[in-house]
Amino acid sequence: MAEDEIERLLREIDATTAKPTAQPPAPKASAGVATSDGSSSGGRLVFAGIAAAALGVGAFLFGIFTPWTDALDMGVAGAGAAFITALVAGPPRWFSN
Questions:
Q1: What are 37-44's contacts with CB under 8 Å, separation 24+?
Q2: pTM score of the predicted model
Q3: Rounded distance, CA 52 to CA 61, Å?
Q4: Which residues contact 43 (CB under 8 A, 6 or more apart)?
Q5: pLDDT tens-digit profile of 44-54?
Q6: DSSP string computed for 5-65
Q7: Domain range annotation of the chain
Q8: What are the tens digits of pLDDT across the range 43-85?
């Protein structure tokens, strides 16, 4: 490559990656922000209950099929752990929408 081609490419890269001197656009109005009317805790509890039921059943079935474990203890422990974890973490966005 010739020196003038390299200089032209460098100028093109600088023009592409240069920060604009204009101010960034102002933030939009908060029309899309959801208001909290107390229903979020209901969704959190429902999600925690579903997670507890699913993991409790799964752990119980695992306990049934493995002879060295106690199925009932595993199911209760799995359900309790899933409920507490889901209650603290909250539902994912796809569950709420």
A1: 40/96, 43/91, 43/95, 43/96, 44/86, 44/87, 44/90, 44/91
A2: 0.54
A3: 14
A4: 91, 95, 96
A5: 888 899 999 99
A6: HHHHHHHHHHHHHSPPSSPPPPPPPGGGPPP--S-HHHHHHHHHHHHHHHHHHHHHHHHHH
A7: 38-97
A8: 888 889 999 999 999 999 999 999 888 899 999 999 999 999 9
